[in-house]
């Protein structure tokens, strides 16, 4: 499978194997974060990179999956919990998809962000009414087991993104991105394709949210539905480049490692330095890391 970029698979496999075997909790945590962001960035690309509908609402899928997993973790086997956590946001996407996808451009961006905030505050009100302001998780799998689950999701998301881009379904989504009106005129079922893309992009974040809540051992609605999750996903995808499947992988790995480096070196100025680095990156490498690699490879050739 030539287009999946085998180097990314080697990096992921190395991280997944080295972290647990080393017995180093820090390395396990870093590998978990990298795999998590790869899975989320790839799921985002299934919708936004292929259709041009930029979503700032993927935090709602992540949060719903985490909430469902927390509610079910003591009542069902963990694989079943993870499956339900993945399906719950997909059902939510199917319900809200048609009305949400009727708007385009910046209105879609604003609507997805507003929808995420609406659900976040709704869950906070529900938890407050139940007298619960946070839920402790005591029956989660080990950190090493959670890492393997997350790596599996990262691989599945990458394969899914590749399959979408190299299918007739992906060709229809690309037509929507280029000119939706013209695509609809030519007979492309734009509404159905967009809805299916939204549902597909919601599955992985739900499972990722479930694993992330198990990893932290605590659920708090404001944290689970944090809009920073959505902004980080978009940033990583753009940093890596949205023109290929390898872009989100490169963006997630580079952004996660850069964040760890800056956090350890400049803990007081972490966000300022990271923001400046991202601004410089957007100005000087607009095609992303993937485009930069292709450009360097082209020069060498």
Descriptive report:
This protein starts with 5 loop residues before the first helix and ends with a helix. With 301 residues, it is mainly α. It is globular, with a radius of gyration of 19 Å. Helix 2 (25-51) packs across helix 10 and helix 3 (58-72) crosses helix 10. It is built from 13 helices and 2 strands; from the N terminus they run H-H-H-H-H-E-H-H-H-E-H-H-H-H-H. It has a two-stranded antiparallel sheet. The longest helix has 27 residues, at 25-51. It has one domain.
What percentage of residues falls in helices of 4 or more residues? over 70%
CA(first)-CA(last) distance: 23 Å
Globally, the shape reads globular
Number of strands: 2
Calculate Rg over CA atoms.
19 Å
**Which secondary-structure class do the elements indicate?**
mainly alpha
Determine the number of helices (DSSP H or I, runs of at least 4 residues). Answer: 13
Give the integer mean of the pLDDT values: 84
